[in-house]
Amino acid sequence: MRKGALPRELDLRGLAAREASISGVAAITDLGRLMSAGVGLVAPASAAFEFRRDEEGRYIVEAQITAEVVLECQRCLGEMTQVLETRTVMACIWDDEDAAQLPSSYEPLIVQETANLSDIVEEELLLAIPASPMHAEDCITDAQRMALGNEEGCIESEGRKESPFAVLAKLKS
Ligand SMILES: [Zn+2]
Predict the structure, then answer these.
(1) What is the DSSP-derived secondary structure letter of residue 26?
(2) From the CA of 169, how far away is ligand 1's center (Å)?
(3) Which of 12, 49, 99, 159 supports an S-S bond with 108, CB 3.0-4.6 Å?
(4) Rounded distance between C-alpha atoms, residue 144 and residue 158, angstroms
């Protein structure tokens, strides 16, 4: 089944009052902040939103987002893909001050009269992207290691177990 683009300029509180559900996809062109962060998408991100009110009358937005992103491996600088899956329960608030009143089970979602669901998708994906993405397997070649002028950075060196981050720190130094 082909899903359509996520609708824009939605009244999230109105949708919560009606207990609506919306699902759709967001293409990379809808996700400008991902693009400027150098992140690509293998296919449009897919998202499912459910809106409801809780016992306290808050306007709740539950979002499940799945995307396969293209990132730059921080070890070999080659492309790598990673599947990101997020599920977040958010409560609509008008400004930062209201965030303090929220129970910790809710993420604050600052929205005015209307919001674009693709902005939420963008935010959630940016939060889900690892700070130092790396291929699962040792992807850097000896030649590349030499080129980095760091022969000691060799990951297989005898019996020493190093975390990828320690290795990365060495490569960077
Ligand atoms: Zn790599």
Answers:
(1) E
(2) 15
(3) 99
(4) 20
What pLDDT tens digit does each residue of the chain (173 aa) get?
467 999 999 999 999 999 999 999 999 999 999 999 999 999 999 999 999 999 999 999 999 999 999 999 999 999 999 999 999 999 999 998 889 999 999 999 999 999 999 999 999 999 999 999 999 888 877 777 777 765 554 455 444 455 556 555 655 55
Q: Among 74, 106, 80, which Cα is nearest to 91's?
A: 106
86: its two tokens: 């997020």
Q: How far apart are the first and last CA of the chain?
A: 49
Secondary structure class of 124 (helix, strand, coil): helix
pTM of the model: 0.79
DSSP 8-state assignment for residue 3:
P
**Cα(82)–Cα(90) distance, integer angstroms:** 25
Looking at residue 56, the DSSP 8-state letter turns out to be T
Interval between CA 69 and ligand 1 midpoint (Å):
15
139 Cα–ligand 1 center, Å? 4
Quote the ligand 1 centre to 53 CA distance (angstroms): 45
Number of neighbouring beta carbons within 10 Å of residue 82 = 19
Q: What is the β-pairing status of strands 79-93 and 59-72? A: antiparallel
